Structures are given as structure tokens and as C-alpha cells.
Amino acid sequence: MNSPNHSGRSGLLAGEQPPGKVPSLVELASGLAPAGRVMRALRDMFSWRFALLLFAALVVLYPLLWVVSLAFSGQQSLTLVQLPEDASLAQQLLALIPLPEQWSLSNFTAVLTEQPFIRWLGNSLAVALSTTLLGLALSCTAAYAFSRFRFAGRERGLMLFLISQMFPAVLMLIPLYVIVVQWLGLGNSWLGLILVYAITALPFCVWMLKGYFDTLPYEIEESALLEGASRWMIFTRIILPLARPAIAVTGLFAFMTAWNEFILASIFMDDESLYTVPVGLRFFVSDYASEWGFFAAGSILVSIPVMLLFLALQRFLVSGLSAGAVKG
User: What is the reported pTM?
Assistant: First the structure.
């Protein structure tokens, strides 16, 4: 006779109802997850943090919307909408929204055809690219020397680079003018402006690259030295390819330093044919005439190369900025 199985229940007791199916945790989570996400999203949207972020975004984007609207308005006045004398409060509030009455490309066409904007753009491109190449050549070699070699004055040199970043560039305006214009005779020339831009960007570039070179293991260089490689071969064929993220970020900074600078270019340049874009845009807004539409259109055009560079180098930005920040 077979003994009853006591390891589990093989049947139902008298009067006991069959148990229902117990839902699993996965099923509960899948059923409650959409509702939970909606409630969490609504709670975040009505929180003070979201309101603060929304206000900050409006403060940043509102001037940009004005620039875009002025550029596409086809007019030169800052007033995009003409209000009647008896305008209501609602009409006045709507006038604060930067939307032109009609959209037009006439400002862009006039800037590109009636003004020497293309020449200014070419001048800025030549100066910015030359500054980037010269700045990278100087900063890469200097940063590698500060990172790998121990020599007299090393700590003082790094400290002087750091101290030079504490003062605004305007303080160096008079010494740079005396050195570049009076001593070297490079006033009103691209070479003088490129030297000034490269020297101005050099301290930041050296510190940026040195921090990245410090993170590269020295054992790689020791192995190359044992194989008979020279220091220059190690630097050009091993270190520089490994430091591409930091070089990309440093080059972008050097390019933007020369591309957006106005004060030095307006002082060192006297010939209109050698003007860069920031100096050329100044003539659209003066004491006698203000062509705000041309100014806004030129500002949008001059920002396109920088945006393209950011898109092209965005995969290097995070790693290049953060890798040299932590030592170890």
C-alpha cells in the first residue's frame, strides 16, 4: 500500500476554495511601472527644481531667440512688432515674444553680398587655424616636458603659468602692444595677431595637456626606450596618438580664443582688408547708424563654424576634459 505524499498537498480539503493565481513581482512591476513613471514625471514637473531650471533656460534662450528673430526679420530695427498707440495689455505682452511679422533672408543676403563679410570670415579662419596649430605645437612640447622631465625651474614655471591665468587679458594689452608693434614691428599684420593669440592661450593649454600626459603610464615609454626608440619618436608616435582627446579639446579652446576675440584684433589691426569677423561686425552698430539685422545675421553666420567643430569633436570633449582632472 502506497503511503500518502506529505511533501506537498495533492488535493483540496473539504470546503477549501482553489487558490487564485498569485501575481509575480515582475507582473506587478510591469503593471505599476507606467503609472509610477507618470506620477513621478508630474511630481517633477511641478517641483521647484523644475521651475528653477525652466526659468534658467528661458533666461539663456530668450536673447538667442531675439538674435534669430532679428536676423530673419528683414529689418534693422530692434522693434519686431509695431504696436498701435492704444495697444492693450495682451498685445504688449505678445510683443515681448521675439517673433517677426514676416520671415525673410534679406539680411543674410545683404551681409554676404553687399558687405565684405566673406573676406572677414576668411581672415578669421586663417588667423584661428594658424593660432591653433602654433598653440598646439608649443603647448604639446611644453606640457610633455613639464610632465616627464625634472629640471631646474619646473615648479616655478608651472606656477607662473597658473598665476598668469588669474589676471584678465586686458592687463597685458599695453605690454603686448609695446612688444608686438613697437619692438617687433608686427602691427597691422596677421603674424603679430597670431603670436598674441597663441601666447594668450598657452598657459591654459599647457596645464590642460600636462594633466592628461600625467595619466599616461610611463611603462609604455620605458618599453619603447628598451626597443631603441628615441624621445622624439616616442612623443610623436606614441604619446600624441594616445592624447588625441586632450589635444582635440585644447585645439578647440585655442581656435575659439582666436575666433571670438575682439579687443586685441581691433587694436592691432588698422587695415579693413585684414579685419576679422568680430571687428567687422562692430561697424554694423555705431553711434550714427545701427543695422541690427545685419549684426544678428552676421552673428549667426560666425557661430556656425564653432558649432560644427563642437559636433565633430564632441566624442573627445568629455574624455579630454575629465581624464586629466584625476591623478592616479
Answer: 0.78
